[in-house]
Every structure is written in structure tokens, then in C-alpha cells.
């Protein structure tokens, strides 16, 4: 059928074409079927949406995703991409071969799947699971689909946390210790989307984080490490597309998680990786057994890819540091590197650095000593300088937001819980991560005894309006739980 | 966050809003998250898509689905609809309660789900299955979501085929016999989308098929029956939305199928329904056991709804009538009603009518006699007249397309198979269902002996170009298989 192309202003990930319902009936296509397009100067495959109004019969609404389509277009029915057959196969519980997984990954990478098909893929891997062999193939295929970094050294260290814990800003400390020990650790991190700060947001308090591959090489050549935003490097483009379907359903299938993390690490050229797996109430992994299973599979898939993976199973119910929000976490990082800072943040960072150094064959290194001696701080300052920041930065340069309110204990008792989700939500209401100085500073830890009127935490904001917003949420929730010893054991509801 | 609304031209089923990536990060929303919108004059919930280009920071691209949104819009994060939680629950293999199914159906009916969520629902019902209780609830909830017809008689007969068989145009014959027997049978049918003709397309050869509910009442009052297009009556709007997600994946989950069919029948006010379940190679149901299971569940769910359901399990490997395409099928229907026509079409129609009349308590009626005596033909002519057609129509008024080509046997042997899919595809290439006179006329049935040069089938088209198209497909395929007796048993490939 011949139709006349008409450009339409539509934000779409996939190559949508709008077809009038009458033309669709004549072609015999449903919404989400594929059509082959041929026009003077090009060819392409579009995914059909039908309309009664937006496009009149005889015309074809074409989105920019398909390039500049103009004039007369010959439209014929095209088959579904191969990936759809394999997704269907997986839905039926049949294990996929390597080349079938490769087709799925390629079709996702090139945006050939509709949301319906993408969701079917994610749901299939969730309800049917991925075998170890499938996870290995998937990791390899996802790695192949992205850009790659390579380094001229045999050992490249890296670190990943599966996330979900507030104030868990160990990365800049771990990187500084490991780099100070002479091990290459080019760390790429994410920005926050639903949390009050990602490592990239926190590092941006000190210096730039967006660099080209070539610039990253120079920073690492100078300092052994870097702390940059990974979004600029495009290491696993497929991952972002799969996340699109996982997020709305809050699905994070085990095999898919491993493939996402390890394909990124592999693309980044990492050879030795420590994976932080926080578990417990409110964390992504509910219990110790599930954490151990996940850890085992991380190690096995890594092994298959020729990578050395070590996993640290950590307590994830409560925040690690005191600060929550970019500047407040940056203060924790700087204080810890300077010999102060929150105890748990220091202990966890040192332990992760030790495990990572050990697996890199550097059992000789004393991570505690590197931190204590100030060598980690010196390396951190070198990285900050190499990334265009002020190497002489002090806590005085990092004041939190000037609007603040402090929440106090309304009774005597013991702090029994600090809610990851709630402190994150309050910090976000206060403006984090966009308002770098916004967030929360926790004054008490779980187990601390408090008396009525003792300070529990302070909320900081850059504007009075956002502070009020955060206070409203604070008042109707209980981010820091104080109970008497009795109540802590038995809570009568 | 306050954004300025900007209308965008986009064809979408769901209430999409386009948000600049920077604003999305500040709000903390991912693609497909929900946002609450409040503007002077209205409120609504939008589903987020992010863009770097199409909408600048500070603006909000709004589709027409949300109504007329203009000026400043206050945008806040909104929770996922409840349905998403229940879909997630079903994905985890947990049986849903009635009110949870109700939420899902309502959210689908009101287009509150994104394609990702809709696909997750369909895939969940496919991989996890629906229990009989869930299927009953789903049928009831889908019934509640649509328009209803009601009739002033205690017995309202109806008929449905789950489809997939070419030339299976029994409906006009069954309706004519049943209506002639004095039983009310207000039949709504679909148009073809991927097949060469639906019952509505075939009836349109004789008369109009699009009527209002009031007009349908008048036709049925006059003739006991009707043969109209169901799309105009909106009996199960949820069904069309669910089909959107089923089609691309070729999924047709058992429980969902039952709920779709019976909710439509219930909404149409039907009390006694015969369901035709064709099975076999190439049909929707692969074998006799699967057909029996499906039939049992149809009966049970119908019983729960207070409907009497009878199922006919029929052979579905090969076409039923001779003609494929609106006019060619219309010719078969008229010839059969007139005492001629293809043997299988006549036998199947009479048998279905008998079963249906029996379950309506009309064991006294002799369906064969009603057909033989011409009473069914007279009733059919009454219905055609009531629907604005020519009651005196003859086969001479129904010539097939003037461009034709006849395919002959290239060898001596026996017809061993007629491929439903291929004859349908060839008929579509020839122009069916849009070109009413296009299609195929089969001259031989399975089991017929043929000699080289004997006519196997004729392709008809309204244009020479479409005939060539159909011939091309015909030449590279084998729609009608001729084998020697030996080969028919053992085919050496």
C-alpha cells in the first residue's frame, strides 16, 4: 500500500508509525504489528499504532526515530522480529540458546521491540528464571552490545553495590584506599533517580564527573583511579532499556541483575570486582540465604567471563553514614578520609577495600593503615584535582543548606530503627539530589539511648518551601524509631 | 513542580505526558511512572515519558487523552495504580481475589495502565494461569465494564467460534435456522483483521451491519434474529485493550479467552450459547484433550454466570466451506440455505443449530427440516431485508472478482491437505476482505482423487495487480497438497 509520509512530533523509544484505522484494516495490521517501509532514499521497519483522528487515510505518521522519511512510502506487512519468537519460547519455560539470547539483546539494543514485547521479556525472565548458562550468555551478549574500555594493566579493580541503603557512600573511600595502594580502579557511578544521592551526585560536590573516555584515561594514568559518571561512557546501553520495563513493575530478576552488573563491569575493562549485597528488612535482598545464592551466582558468572568476583554480604536495614544528600554525604566522605567520620562508614569502607585488594593479589596491603596515614585522603585529593576540583577542600567549604530544622526525641528510650526509605524520601522532599546542600544529618544510631528532647536528626534545605515540604512528611512518619527497652522487644499495635 | 502545558500531537492509548529529562530527574520520576497533574480547570494522572529534545525544561507535553490541559500545571509524583500491585502479585504466583481482579479490569478499562503493565498482566495470566475462580471473577468484572443489551424473552440463543479455520461461515446459517424455529438469536459478529473475512464482512455483502442498539432491537423483534457488527455496540471494551497485548506475542491464555468470550455473550444478554472449538494441526487448539479441557471450563464458568453453555469440538485442520473471502463465503451461505452449497458447511451448520436448539429446550425442532423446507432461507431473507438489503438476492447478484486464475494439479494423486493459513493469506493478497469479491474458491476437498490438470482452486481479485500478488504467494507455497497414496502416508523430505 502506498501512503504519504507526514512527520509527527512524538516522544518514542521505538520506531512508531501512525496508520489510519481504515488503512490498517486494509493492510491487515493490528497495533504493534511491524510494517516494512520503503521510500525514495531509505528503508526501515516501523511499529504500527492505529488512529482514527491524528492521521487521515492515505497518510502515514512517521516519528523521527525512523530518520527523515518523506514523500510516498510503500508500506507492506513485515514479520515480528526473531526476538519475539524467542521471548515466546522463554514464556513457555524452554531454556534459550546463546544465539537466541543474542537476538533478543540485539533487538533490544536497536529498539526493535515494542513495550509489550520488552515487558514480556522481563516478565519471562522473572517468572521462568534464567539458568546459570542463560545468565552467562546474557551477560556476554549485553557486554558485546556496549562500548568497551581497556587498560594497559593486568589487574583492574572495581566495586558495585546492588543498592537500596541510604547514606551508603563507601565508594569514594574504597576507591581512594585501593588507588593509594597502587591498584588501578577506574570507577564509573550513577546519578540518583529515586534516591537522594548517587555517588556521581556526591562527587559532583567536589569536582566534575562528566568526562570522555580519553579524559578518563588521563585521570586514571595520573591517580590510579577516578570517580566519574558512567552515563557518559555508554557501557551497557541495553541495560537502560531493560530497566525501563523493570521499574514500573518493581521487578529485578536475579539473573537479569547479575547480567546487568557484570556486563557493565566487563565493558569497563574490570578484572576484579567486589559486589556489596546489602540484605535485610527494607533492602533489595530480603534475607541472608537469598543474599548468599545471589553471591554464588555472581561469582560463577564472573568466573565464566574470566573475572574475579568477590561478594560482601552486608546489613542493609539502616543507613550506613550520618549524611543523606550530596553535600551531607560528601562531608561524611571527607571526614572519614581525614580520620573522623561515622564509625560504620569507615569500617565498611575499609573492609570492602581489604577484600578487593586481597582478591587483586595485594594481601600485603593494610587498608586501615592507608586510611589512618592519610594516604587515602591524599589520593582522593589527587583525584579531585585531576577531575577539575579544589584539592584543598575542607569541611568548611561544604556547608549544608541554610534552612534547617532539627527533630528531637519525644520520649526517653532507645533508637531501635532508622528507616532507609523514609529518610531518603524526606531528604528528597528537602530538595536532594538537585539541591546539593539539601538532605538529612542523622545524630543518633540504632542502639543509642536517648532522652526526651535529645536531637535525633536535622533536615537541611536550600529553600524554606522545600524544608516545609520535608517537615510535613517527617511529621506524619517515623524515620527514626525510639522505643523503651520493653517496646523494642514487643510492640503492641 | 510547576510546568507549562504544551499540547503534543501523539497517538496514544494511555494518558502520556512528555517531561524533559532534567525535570524528570528533579521530580525523581522514571519513564512510565505516574504524575498527578493539577491545572486551572482540572486534574488528572499522566504516565511519564522522558525526552531530551521534544519538550524543553519547564514545559510539559500533554496528549489529548488527558483533555484540554493548558497554562501552568502543578506536577507531583503519583503512586502506581493498585492494579500494578495485583499484577505483581499474580506474577509471583498468588491467586487474586475478586476485588483485585476488579481493580485490574477497571484500570485497563480506563486506560490507566502503560503497555509494560498491560503486557505484564497478560503474561502473568499466561505463565501462571488463571484458576477457575479467577476466570469466573474476571468474566464477571469484564461484563460489568461494558454496555449491556437486554431482551424481553427468557431464552436468548447465541453462537461463538474461537476461530482460526478458513471458510467457516456457519453463523448466518445457524442463526437463520434457530430464528426460523422461533428462538431469539441476536448475533453480533466481528470484522476480519488478519483473516480474509469475518461474519460481519460476509453479511455486508447482503445488507448493512452497523446498527444502534435500538435498531438491533427492531430487527430482532421482526425476525427473531440479526447478523450485525458487534463493534458498534461496545459490549466488552476491556477485551479490545487486552487483545492489544496478546496479539504481538500470539498469546491467548485459556482463562482470558473464556472470560473474553463469555463476558461479551453475557453483556449481549445471551442465556444459551454454543461455542465452536476447532482443534487440530494449524488450529488454535492443538489436540482433542486440550479442546475438551477448554470446553469443560467454558461450561463451568458459564454455569457460574447463570448461562447454559454447550461446546462443539470440531475438526479445524482444513477449511469448512468452498469459498474464502466475503462474496465467495456469501455465495456458500446462500447456496447452503437454498439446499445446495458445500456438504461440510451444511452438516456443521445443522449440527451446531441442533445442539443450540436442544440446549434452549427446543428438542422438538428438526433443524435439518427447517433448512430443507426453505424456512431458514426465508428467515435469512427477512433478516437481510430488516437490515436494509435486497431480500430477493440470488447467486447471480454475487459474482466474484472479474480477474481470476485457476490453479490445477501438477500431478495425479489425492488431495491430502488444504492449508488454512495459506489459503487465507492468498485470499488476503488477492484483496479480501476490503475487496469484497476477492478470495478463493476451492474445487476439491481433502480425500478427492485428482489427475494432472484437474482444477484445484480459483483465485479471484478485483484488480490485476492484486491477482498477481496472490499468484506470487501461491506459486511459492502449496495451499492444496496433492500426493500419491504412498506419499500421503510417508512423506520423504
Automatic annotation (TrEMBL), chains A, B:
For the Pyrimidine nucleoside phosphorylase C-terminal domain, which residue ranges apply?
A: 414-481
Gene Ontology molecular function, alphabetical: pentosyltransferase activity
Q: Name the InterPro entries for this protein.
A: AMP_phosphorylase, Glycosyl_Trfase_fam3, Glycosyl_Trfase_fam3_N_dom, Glycosyl_Trfase_fam3_N_dom_sf, Nuc_phospho_transferase, PYNP-like_C_sf, PYNP_C, Pyrmidine_PPase_CS
| EC nos | 2.4.2.57
> SMART domains from the entry?
PYNP_C
Mind listing the UniProt keywords for this protein, alphabetically? Glycosyltransferase, Transferase
Q: Which Gene3D superfamilies match?
A: 2.40.40.20, Nucleoside phosphorylase/phosphoribosyltransferase catalytic domain (3.40.1030.10), Pyrimidine nucleoside phosphorylase-like, C-terminal domain (3.90.1170.30), Transferase, Pyrimidine Nucleoside Phosphorylase, Chain C (1.20.970.10)
Tell me any Pfam family this protein matches.
Glycos_transf_3
What is the name of this protein? AMP phosphorylase
Organism taxonomic ancestry: Archaea, Methanobacteriati, Methanobacteriota, Stenosarchaea group, Halobacteria
Amino acid at each position: 500500500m502506498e501512503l504519504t509520509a507526514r512527520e509527527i512530533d512524538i516522544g518514542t523509544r521505538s520506531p512508531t508509525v501512525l496508520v489510519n484505522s481504515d488503512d490498517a484494516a486494509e493492510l491487515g495490521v493490528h497495533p504493534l504489528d511491524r510494517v516494512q517501509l520503503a521510500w525514495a532514499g531509505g528503508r526501515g521497519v516501523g511499529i504500527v499504532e492505529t488512529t482514527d483522528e491524528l492521521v487521515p487515510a492515505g497518510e502515514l505518521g512517521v516519528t523521527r526515530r525512523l530518520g527523515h522519511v518523506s514523500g510516498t512510502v510503500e508500506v507492506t506487512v513485515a514479520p515480528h522480529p526473531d526476538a519475539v519468537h524467542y521471548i515466546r519460547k522463554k514464556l513457555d519455560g524452554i531454556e534459550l540458546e546463546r544465539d537466541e539470547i543474542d537476538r533478543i539483546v540485539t533487538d533490544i539494543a536497536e529498539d526493535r521491540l515494542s513495550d509489550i514485547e520488552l515487558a514480556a521479556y522481563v516478565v519471562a525472565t522473572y517468572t521462568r528464571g534464567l539458568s546459570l548458562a542463560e545468565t552467562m550468555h546474557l551477560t556476554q551478549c549485553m557486554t558485546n552490545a556496549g562500548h568497551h574500555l581497556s587498560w594497559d594493566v593486568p589487574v583492574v579493580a572495581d566495586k558495585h553495590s546492588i543498592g537500596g541503603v541510604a547514606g551508603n557512600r563507601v565508594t569514594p573511600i574504597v576507591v581512594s584506599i585501593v588507588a593509594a595502594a597502587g591498584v588501578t580502579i577506574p570507577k564509573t557511578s550513577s546519578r540518583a533517580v529515586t534516591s537522594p544521592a548517587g555517588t556521581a551526585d556526591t562527587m559532583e560536590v567536589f569536582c566534575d564527573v562528566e568526562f570522555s573516555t580519553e579524559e578518563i584515561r588521563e585521570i586514571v594514568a595520573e591517580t590510579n583511579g577516578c570517580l566519574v559518571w558512567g552515563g557518559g561512557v555508554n557501557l551497557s546501553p541495553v541495560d537502560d532499556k531493560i530497566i525501563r520495563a523493570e521499574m514500573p513493575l518493581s521487578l529485578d530478576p536475579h539473573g537479569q541483575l547479575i547480567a546487568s552488573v557484570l556486563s557493565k563491569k566487563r565493558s569497563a575493562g574490570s578484572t576484579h570486582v567486589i559486589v556489596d549485597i546489602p540484605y535485610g528488612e527494607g533492602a533489595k535482598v530480603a534475607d541472608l540465604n537469598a543474599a548468599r545464592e545471589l553471591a554464588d551466582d555472581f561469582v560463577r558468572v564472573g568466573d565464566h567471563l574470566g573475572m574475579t568476583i568477590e561478594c560482601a554480604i552486608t546489613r542493609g536495614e539502616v543507613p550506613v553514614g550520618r549524611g543523606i544528600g550530596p553535600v551531607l554525604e560528601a562531608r561524611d566522605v571527607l571526614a572519614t578520609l581525614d580520620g573522623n567520620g561515622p564509625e560504620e562508614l569507615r569500617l565498611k569502607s575499609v573492609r570492602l577495600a581489604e577484600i578487593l585488594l586481597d582478591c587483586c593479589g595485594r594481601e600485603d596491603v593494610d587498608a586501615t593503615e592507608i586510611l589512618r596515614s592519610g594516604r587515602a585522603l591524599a589520593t582522593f585529593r589527587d583525584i579531585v584535582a585531576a577531575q577539575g576540583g579544589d584539592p584543598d577542600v575542607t569541611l568548611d567549604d561544604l556547608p549544608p543548606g541554610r534552612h534547617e530544622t532539627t527533630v528531637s526525641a519525644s520520649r526517653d528510650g532507645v533508637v531501635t530503627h532508622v528507616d532507609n526509605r523514609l529518610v531518603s524520601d524526606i531528604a528528597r522532599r528537602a530538595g536532594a539530589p538537585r539541591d546539593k546542600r539539601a538532605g538529612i544529618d542523622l545524630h543518633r544510631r540504632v542502639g543509642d539511648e536517648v532522652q526526651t528532647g535529645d536531637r535525633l536528626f536535622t533536615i537541611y534545605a536550600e529553600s524554606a518551601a522545600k524544608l516545609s515540604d520535608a517537615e510535613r512528611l517527617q511529621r506524619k512518619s517515623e524515620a527514626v524509631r525510639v522505643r523503651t527497652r520493653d517496646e523494642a522487644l514487643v510492640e503492641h499495635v
